[in-house]
Amino acid sequence: MQTLQLKNAEFLPHVCELVKEGHRVSLRAKGNSMRPFIESDRDVAVLTDCSDYKVGDVVLAEISKGHYVLHRIDRLDGQNVTLRGDGNVAGTEHCTIGDIRAVTCQIIRKGKTWNLSTSRIWKIYSKVWVRLLPARRYLLAIYRLVFRGEIPRRLRFWR
């Protein structure tokens, strides 16, 4: 099977239209900002339309014209939303409720489908991970070293 890669700014507006029309859309994850829960090039996020958002939801948001992120809602303050990727230790994005284009209802990982609204394991992972923010830097480093085999450049003896 052949794959085609498009720029997010070209492709995701069409995805948003399909979601708005009531379709569920599956997207393969790209990038490491939602690591360790959503892995790049392995996991698939299933997006759907929603109008009732809550802290902890993983949403697709357009944070600036043509710039989309799939991140977790960190804080809701009226119409203002703060987003943070699970793999981010410091950075956040800001948008409004109107900038949220879809919510992730399922994650397909290694052939297993996780329903984010009903899976107790996913809910526990999410709640614990959000509360571990100060320790995330170290936990992510351990994850990268042990599970991904990624050694930071500064720790390599060869260059």
Write the layout of secondary structure elements.
Blueprint: H1 8-20, E1 25-28, E2 44-48, E3 58-64, E4 67-77, E5 80-84, E6 93-96, E7 100-109, E8 112-115, H2 120-131, H3 136-146
Antiparallel strand pairs: 1-2, 2-7, 3-4, 3-7, 4-5, 5-6, 7-8
Number of strands: 8
What distance separates the N and C termini? Answer: 36 Å
Largest sheet: 8 strands, antiparallel
Count of individual helical segments: 3
Report on this model:
The protein is built from 3 helices and 8 strands. With 159 residues, it is an alpha+beta fold. The mean pLDDT is 86. 23% of the residues lie in helices and 31% in strands. A hairpin with a 2-residue loop joins β4 and β5 (80-84). Strands 1, 2, 3, 4, 5, 6, 7 and 8 form an 8-stranded antiparallel beta sheet that branches. The chain is globular and about 45 Å long. It has helices at residues 8-20, 120-131, 136-146, and strands at 25-28, 44-48, 58-64, 67-77, 80-84, 93-96, 100-109, 112-115.
Quick description:
This protein has helices at 8-20, 120-131, 136-146; strands at residues 25-28, 44-48, 58-64, 67-77, 80-84, 93-96, 100-109, 112-115. By secondary structure, the chain is of the alpha+beta class. Strands 1, 2, 3, 4, 5, 6, 7 and 8 form an eight-stranded antiparallel β-sheet that branches.
Q: Which short descriptors sum up this protein?
A:
single chain, alpha+beta, 23% helix, 8-stranded antiparallel sheet
